[in-house]
Structures are given as C-alpha cells and as structure tokens.
Design brief:
With 391 residues, this protein is of the alpha+beta class. It has one domain (36-387): DD-peptidase/beta-lactamase superfamily (Beta-lactamase, 3-Layer(aba) Sandwich), CATH 3.40.710. Helices cover 37% and strands 15% of the residues. The protein contains eleven helices and 14 strands. The strands form four sheets. The protein has an eight-stranded antiparallel sheet with strand order 2-1-14-13-12-11-10-9, with helices on both faces.
Length: 391
C-alpha cells in the first residue's frame, strides 16, 4: 500500500475533522427533531387524556401524527371498548362518518381525470329521472356544497323512518326520494350549504358514468391505489373485527351504539368503515395528489367560506370534497365527520407529507360545549405536531 505524501497529511486531517463535525451536526439535528416531536406529541397526549376525563366525554380516543419522512406516532387515551376494557388501536375499525364525503370526491375526481365525467356534467345529463328542478346542478356544485339540493337527513319523513326501524336497509335512490318533491333551497352557486344529499348524488352520478357499482369504484379508484386494506362501505350494521366501540356518552353508563343504526342511511355521504391507520393513509394520498393531476387539484383547491360538519379546528373553507383549515402553525386540508358513536377529523399538508387523524368514540359537536372545545384542542395540537417539520 502506497504511503500518502507528507504534504497531503494536513489536508486529510482537515477533511476528517470536517466530516466528523458534519456527522455530529446531523446527529444533533436528529436528536433535536426527536425532542421536538416528542414535546409536540406530549401536548397531544395531555389534551387527549384531558378530553376523555371530562363528564359526558367519549370513553376513548386515538390520534395519529405523522411528519415528513417519519414513522407515524400513535397517541391513545381511555378505552376503545368498555366491556372488557381495551385501548383503541390504529388497526381497529371505526365508522368514519362524513369523512366518507372525501372518498366520494376521490372517486368523482378520478373519473374526471379519466374523462368519464366532467366537473360541469349536470344531474340532468347523468340522472335524468331526478327532479327537473335539479337538472342544471353540476358535479362541481355538488362537491362544493353549493348545489341547493335539500338535505335528506333534515327531512321529517326520513327521520321518522329511521326512528321506526334503525336497522332498515335504504337503497341510495330511496334516500334522495325523501326530498325529491322539494325545490332547490337556493340558486346553484349563490351560497354554501352543507348537504348530505350532495354526496349521495355524486355516488349515483359516478355509477351512471361507469355502469360500475360505487363500492367497486371505491376499491379500484381509492383503496387499491393508496394501499388501503381495511376500509369498506358496508350496507348492514355489523362491524368488522376488531373495532373501536362507539358510545352514547350522555348516558350513565355510556351505551354501546356501534351497530344500532344501519349505515345504508348514509351510503356515500357517511357510511364507510375504516381504521385510524388506513384513514391516515387515505388523507396523505388524497390531499397529496396521488389520485389525479396537478391541474385538477388546482380546481379542487378553490375554496370558499363554509363549515364542515362538525366544524374543524380552525376557520373552515370548503373546496371540492375537501376543507381547508388555516392555523398559526400552518394549513392543513381534510375533512371531519360524526355518526352515532363516532367523531372524526383527518387532514394533511398540501404535499401530503404531514398528516393527522383524530378519532373519538362518541358523537360530539358544537352543542356539546366544553367537550367539543376539548376535542378541538386535541385536533389543534395534533395538527401543529404534524406540521412542525412537514409542511
């Protein structure tokens, strides 16, 4: 082996010292990043524990925080099942409620990308048997909740039918029939109004455009491309095992309502069952642009003032089947939802590299006062923990 010339030895020593300094700096940065996320997730942990400790609060909750290039952090509090007592897990099933609307958006926009339908396709063109008064409403307006189509879940006859038989199996078209005799609530695009009917019609238009059942479209256009293996759209109330049990927290003791109501009454608007892990995977891909082009995403990300239901952790702005939540620590995009026994929030940074999912096992909303405010605190802490490095 040849010896280095004497004159090069100082240069070698300097290079070695420089490399050692760089390695030390990188190591310090990694340690700092771990400490940073550790501190941020401790806030999520404390706020989640504070939530479930309140009176009339969900028995349990689980939050997933994932930052750019990092493994996901799973934070749990309370119980996903009270009898026997079991902690919620990231792989337990749960009802995702109105987050299902983001899935209908994913299907519809994927079909737009394929040229099977356009954002300006009207109800009359694809579903001519629906009320003539609705025919000029477009797919874009349905996804934006600016359609004016009346909400079937506010209809007295629907509520009476559900009360009389909570296990009743509704066909999607039956849901729309409850309001088919009603005019539009306002001229399309003249205002924003959240309506569960919108996404039922989106699902029906997707079927009409393809001749394929909506459940199959979910599998081919969402679950498979995003690697989701624990998500489905059941038509009956039994839940796949294992699952996070949903409770009516206002009763003492809380009553398990996980399977009391048939999800067929929500269908594309709120009937999907998933897991916290799968939901986190979905929102990263959906918001991050893995399902359709940058040009189509630009149209999806045209926002107007409008609340999700329940409202999210900051001022709410509605895009096409997605909401924007701008906060001091950054902006995320996602959706919320509630269903008897469950309340959901999932969101991601625009590049999809930072994400958060917060799931609790009771239905709560703004009318629940401090319990709802405590949930918003959990969501805010989780968002800021995810965005610390992941914007």
């Amino acid at each position: 082996m040849r010896r280095l010339p004497q004159r090069l030895l100082p240069l070698v020593v300097i290079a070695a010292l420089a490399l050692a300094a760089l390695a030390a700096a990188a190591s310090a940065a990694e340690i700092g990043a771990r400490a940073e996320i550790g501190s941020a997730t401790k806030l999520v942990n404390r706020s989640l524990k504070a939530l479930v400790a309140l009176n009339d609060a969900p028995p349990g909750g689980i939050a997933i925080v994932q930052r750019k290039g990092e493994r996901r952090h799973v934070i749990k509090a309370g119980y996903g099942n009270l009898m026997p007592q079991e902690r919620p897990k990231a792989t337990d099933h749960m009802r995702i409620a109105s987050v299902s609307k983001a899935f209908s958006g994913a299907v519809a926009l994927s079909l737009v990308e394929e040229g099977r339908i356009t954002l300006d396709t009207t109800i009359g063109e694809r579903l001519p048997d629906l009320p003539v008064a609705w025919h000029a409403v477009t797919l874009r307006q349905l996804l934006h909740h600016t359609s004016g189509v009346p909400d079937f879940t506010q209809d007295a006859d629907f509520l009476a039918a559900l009360a009389a038989d909570p296990q009743r199996h509704f066909l999607p078209r039956e849901l729309i029939d409850f309001v088919a005799d009603q005019p539009l609530g306002f001229a399309p695009d003249s205002q924003y109004r959240y309506s569960n009917s919108d996404n039922i019609i989106v699902g029906l238009m997707a079927e009409a455009a393809t001749g394929v059942p909506y459940e199959t479209l979910l599998a081919t256009h969402v679950y498979t491309p995003l690697g989701m293996k624990d998500t489905s759209l059941p038509s009956e109330s039994p839940m796949p095992e294992p699952f996070i049990h949903g409770y009516d927290a206002l009763l003492d003791p809380p009553e398990d309502v996980s399977t009391v109501i048939s999800p067929s009454g929500a269908w594309a608007s709120g009937g999907i069952v998933s897991t916290p892990a799968d939901l986190n995977r979905f929102i990263r891909g959906y918001v991050g642009g893995r399902l359709f082009s940058k040009e189509l995403r630009a149209q999806q990300f045209a926002f107007l003032r409008g609340d999700s239901d329940p409202p999210g952790p900051a001022n709410n702005f509605a895009g096409l089947a997605v909401f924007k939540y701008p906060m001091n620590c950054g902006t995320v995009f996602g959706h919320t939802g509630s269903f008897p026994g469950y309340t959901q929030f999932t969101a991601a940074s625009r590049n999809g590299q930072a994400s958060v999912t917060v799931s609790v096992n009771a239905q709560i909303g703004p009318g629940d006062g401090k319990v709802f405010n405590a949930l918003l605190r959990v969501e805010r802490h989780a968002v800021c923990a995810a965005l610390t490095r992941g914007r």
